[in-house]
Amino acid sequence: MSKKRVLTGVTTTGIPHLGNYVGAIRPAIRAAQDSNTESFLFLADYHGIIKCHEPEMIHQSTQAVAATWLACGLNPEQTTFYRQSDIPEVMELNWILTCITAKGLMNRAHAYKAAVQANTENGQEDPDHGVEMGLYSYPILMTADILMFNAHEVPVGRDQIQHVEMARDIAGRFNHRFQELFTLPEVKIDENVELLVGLDGRKMSKSYGNTIPLWENDKKTQKSVNKIITNMKEPGEPKQPDESPLFEIYKAFSTPSETAEFTQMLAEGLAWGEAKKLLGAKINAELAEPRERYNELTAKPSQIEDILHAGAQKARKEARELLDKVRDAVGIRPLK
Fold first, then answer.
1. Is 0.70 surpassed by the pTM of this model?
2. Please, are residues 228 and 199 in contact by the beta-carbon 8 Å criterion?
């Protein structure tokens, strides 16, 4: 039986935080260990420059994101781990797909429609004011990322479902017009993936400023945990899990029995300060080894570069074979 191919891209526009770890990194690494799965994971640096125009941020984030995945247990022998910009075949495929993609399909992309709506609401005469082609056409680049390796499944958040559906449309159009070369990818929504709450109870996000950094030392992590909002209940007063985001974060780092025990301790009047100490200890215990590995990797970036280079060589061999077939199908062939 052939293995199921699962492909995931990570945009290089920031430093990973605890929410990224719980919601994406940890489950993806566990999933990649399935012997029936062939996993592809890439650093989407070309996607990064669509919105981020700070070269140093793109560069630093590429290193931090790569080091994070490796430190958290990604095995480059099991997973094809590469940097998007190291695979020129993706960009060539991107252009070929652009040539068969209907403009009307791109007009319906959520990000583009949101930009147009914002311009209209702000009274801009030109509805396309400030819209760059990277934003407009990035669903085609995402399609090239997916189709380049004929992924069967693409794990995405609900806000990205449309892009995988577009990839199916574009693949279907190519297959119909030229030759059946592309697998139609399926969206994979994991209902069990945890969306970790932040310090204020909202989804943990850089835009909300409510994150807990992933790679701080024990002391600084505890300092961040101490900022989690709680109510005014005194030590000794019974407390419920829904009275503070602290419980949901604790649950993400505990077994069911540990969570039940923590719930009981709160009900018996555990002080919020003590609860925060228990949570800080939990987080630091799980991340102790990954932090050590992360620091080793970032101290020697050439190690990361070597791993990415090896992943790119592995990926390019396959990408080249498919691209040669695509080129031939559209009529770009040697003269004989």
1. yes
2. yes
279 close to 249: Cβ distance less than 8 angstroms: yes
Query: C-alpha distances in angstroms, 142 versus 33, 46, 158, 160, 235?
Result: 25, 10, 15, 10, 52
Q: Is the distance from CB of 199 to CB of 208 less than 8 angstroms? A: no
Q: Quick check: helix, strand or coil at residue 8?
A: strand
Q: What is the largest CA-CA distance in the chain?
A: 86
Residues 112/135, Cβ–Cβ less than 8 Å: yes
> Nearest Cα to 185, choosing from 40, 10, 32, 1?
40
Tens digits of per-residue pLDDT, 126-136? 999 999 999 99
Q: Can you tell me whether residue 44 is helix, strand or coil?
A: strand
pLDDT digits 0-9 by tens, 55-64: 999 999 999 9
Cα separation, 146 vs 100, in Å, equals 16
